[in-house]
Amino acid sequence: MTDKNAWPQSPEPIWRVGKQQSPHSALTENIETDVVVVGGGITGITSAYLLAKEGLRVVLLEANQVLNGTTGHTTAKITAQHDLIYDEFLNHFGKENAQLYYRANVEALKFIKQTIDQDSISCSFSEEDAYLYATTPEYARKLTNEMRAYQQLGIHGEFVNSLPLDLPIKAGIKMPNQAQFDPVAYLTPLLNSFLQNGGRIYEKTVAVDVQKGTNPVVVTKNGSTVTCKHVLACSHFPFYDGNALYFSRMYAEASYVVAASTKSEFPGGMYLSAEDPKRSMRSHTFNGEKLVLFGGESHKTGQGNRLSDHYKALKFFAEETLGVKNVLYRWSAEDFYTLDKLPYIGPVTSKQDNILIATGFHKWGMTNGTTAALLFKDYVMGNTNPYQDLFSPSRFYADPSIKTFLVQNADVAGQFVKGKLSVPKKKISELKQDEGAVVRINGRRAGAYKDQEGSVHLVDTTCTHLYCEVEWNDGDRTWDCPCHGSRFGVDGKVIEGPADRPLTNLTDELE
Ligand SMILES: Cc1cc2nc3c(=O)[nH]c(=O)nc-3n(C[C@H](O)[C@H](O)[C@H](O)COP(=O)(O)OP(=O)(O)OC[C@H]3O[C@@H](n4cnc5c(N)ncnc54)[C@H](O)[C@@H]3O)c2cc1C
Question: Which residue ranges have their beta carbon within 6 Å of ligand 1?
Answer without folding.
Answer: 38-44, 61-64, 68-71, 73-77, 206-207, 234-236, 239, 255, 257, 295, 333-335, 361, 363-367, 369, 497, 500
